[in-house]
């Protein structure tokens, strides 16, 4: 029986979603093989809750003491969306303790979490990206830089973050100032990116049993102007078509690009690649190295379309690192 720490929570606007992901993992873990411990991370407070009691994690060796019993972990299931679980910080900590974990390593996590840096690297691999401007907090001329280099409409979003927290679509010049302030409220770096008209497609990729598997491509059809936080997590606000209603050759091309990026970026665990398809080209949006895995999330739906249960997904992720 393996002791598995499920880390969830984190220090970003994705805290609540992360806790839901962690709870879902706990509920669906194969109890005949794994003993799960859901650990809530929030700032410097790392705690495991058992009934009404809370037990702090010993950060010296990432262990728990419950009564006279000291619990060490065989592996970590990373369910933290955002910092410190998706940006490389926890990965570095677990690397030093030599504890395996289900997500990408330190370098890949840090690179992919910075949208601007990641887009530059992906572009170097020959994948199309939208034109964008990388802006830093406190540097004057943000509005002018956007209007000078990009054509409206544009998306303005935190450069380091997910779940569309702090994101806005700017259709008119007068909306830009408020959009920049909203994004800067979430991050010290933001990205303004030109709007590309097309279909939003996403593909999950996982390595298991020595093979890299691309799940069926999914189309996201938001009932709002774009796929924002509400559309992602409010029931009925978006349709997620799995598999996407697209020609087989288009689906295969999307999966091919995703597998290639998975290998080139040295990804691990389950990763989701997001694109806009304009009818001719795939424009890379971002890579989610710790994608949502709540009951409403896209990845479990992709896995189901592939023929896996939620429990199969969890087991395959853990088998790969144990």
Annotation keywords:
globular; seven-stranded mixed β-sheet; Dna Ligase, domain 1; Rossmann fold; 3 domains; 322 residues; single chain; alpha+beta
Instruction: Pick out the low-confidence regions.
Output: 227-233
Number of domains: 3
Q: Assign the CATH superfamily of the largest domain.
A: ATP-grasp fold, B domain
Mean pLDDT: 91
Shape: globular
- Give the total of beta strands: 18
The level-1 CATH class of the largest domain: Alpha Beta
Termini Cα gap? 12 Å
Question: What portion of the residues fall into strands of 2 or more residues?
Answer: 25-35%
Note the topology.
Elements: E1 2-9, H1 15-28, E2 34-42, E3 45-50, E4 53-56, E5 63-66, E6 69-72, E7 75-78, H2 89-97, H3 106-113, H4 115-124, E8 128-129, E9 132-136, H5 142-149, E10 154-158, E11 168-170, H6 176-184, E12 189-194, E13 199-208, E14 211-214, E15 218-222, H7 229-233, E16 238-241, H8 248-264, E17 270-277, E18 282-288, H9 298-306, H10 310-321
Parallel strand pairs: 1-2, 1-7, 8-18
Antiparallel strand pairs: 2-3, 3-4, 5-6, 9-12, 10-11, 10-12, 13-14, 13-15, 13-17, 15-16, 17-18
Notes on the protein architecture:
It is a single chain. This protein is of the alpha+beta class. It has helices spanning 15-28, 89-97, 106-113, 115-124, 142-149, 176-184, 229-233, 248-264, 298-306, 310-321, and strands spanning 2-9, 34-42, 45-50, 53-56, 63-66, 69-72, 75-78, 128-129, 132-136, 154-158, 168-170, 189-194, 199-208, 211-214, 218-222, 238-241, 270-277, 282-288. The strands form four sheets. Strands 8, 13, 14, 15, 16, 17 and 18 form a seven-stranded mixed sheet that branches. A five-stranded mixed sheet has the order 4-3-2-1-7. It has a four-stranded antiparallel sheet with strand order 9-12-10-11, covered by helices on one side. The chain has ten helices and 18 strands. The chain is globular, with a radius of gyration of 20 Å. The protein folds into three domains: 2-103, Rossmann fold; 110-127 and 196-321, ATP-grasp fold, B domain (D-amino Acid Aminotransferase, Chain A, domain 1, 2-Layer Sandwich); 131-194, Dna Ligase, domain 1, CATH 3.30.1490.20. It starts with a strand and ends with a helix.
């Amino acid at each position: 029986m393996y002791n598995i720490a499920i880390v969830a929570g984190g220090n970003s606007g994705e805290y609540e979603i992360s806790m839901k992901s962690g709870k879902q993992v706990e509920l669906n873990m194969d109890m005949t093989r794994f003993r799960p411990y859901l650990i809530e991370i929030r700032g410097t407070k790392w705690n495991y809750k058992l009934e009404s009691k809370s037990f702090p994690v010993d950060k010296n060796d990432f262990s728990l003491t419950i009564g006279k019993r000291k619990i060490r972990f065989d592996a970590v299931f990373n369910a933290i969306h955002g910092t410190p679980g998706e940006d490389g910080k926890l990965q570095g900590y677990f690397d030093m303790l030599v504890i395996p974990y289900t997500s990408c390593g330190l370098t890949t996590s840090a690179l992919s979490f910075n949208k601007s840096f990641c887009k530059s690297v992906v572009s170097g691999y020959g994948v199309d990206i939208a034109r964008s401007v990388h802006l830093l907090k406190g540097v004057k001329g943000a509005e002018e830089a956007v209007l000078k280099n990009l054509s409206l409409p544009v998306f303005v979003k935190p450069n380091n973050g997910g779940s569309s927290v702090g994101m806005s679509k700017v259709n008119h010049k007068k909306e830009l100032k408020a959009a920049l302030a909203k994004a800067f409220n979430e991050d010290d770096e933001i990205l303004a990116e030109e709007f590309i008209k097309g279909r939003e497609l996403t593909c999950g990729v996982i390595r298991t049993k020595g093979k890299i598997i691309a799940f069926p491509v999914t189309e996201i059809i938001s009932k709002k102007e774009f796929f924002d936080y509400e559309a992602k997590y409010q029931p009925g606000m978006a349709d997620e078509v799995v598999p996407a209603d697209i020609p087989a050759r288009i689906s295969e091309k999307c999966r091919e690009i995703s597998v290639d990026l998975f290998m080139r970026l040295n990804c691990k665990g389950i990763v989701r690649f997001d694109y806009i398809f304009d009818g001719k080209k795939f424009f890379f949006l971002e890579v989610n190295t710790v994608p949502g895995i709540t009951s409403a999330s896209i990845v479990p739906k992709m896995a189901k379309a592939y023929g896996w249960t939620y429990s199969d997904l969890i087991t395959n992720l853990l088998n790969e690192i144990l």
